[in-house]
Amino acid sequence: MNIKIDYKIISKIYESANSLIYRAIKPDKSPIILKILKENYPTKSELIRYQQEYEITKSLNSNRIIKAYNRLVAK
Question: Residues 55, 47: contact at Cβ < 8 Å?
Fold first, then answer.
C-alpha cells in the first residue's frame, strides 16, 4: 500500500502478520508512532477490529499509554 504521508519514518518498531508499527517524526518535529495495515484490501472484519482498537486507544487517558490522535484511511 502506497500512501503519501508527511511523516519521516525513523525506525520500524514491530511487524506482525497484519501490520507494521513505525517510530516517526511529524512535519512539526514532534514524535509519533504509526501503525500501518499490510493488506491492500483488508476484510470488513479486519477494518472493524482496527476501528475498535483505535476507539479504545483514543478513549484511554494515561501518561503511560500512547495517545491515538488520528486514523487515516486510504481510498
Answer: no
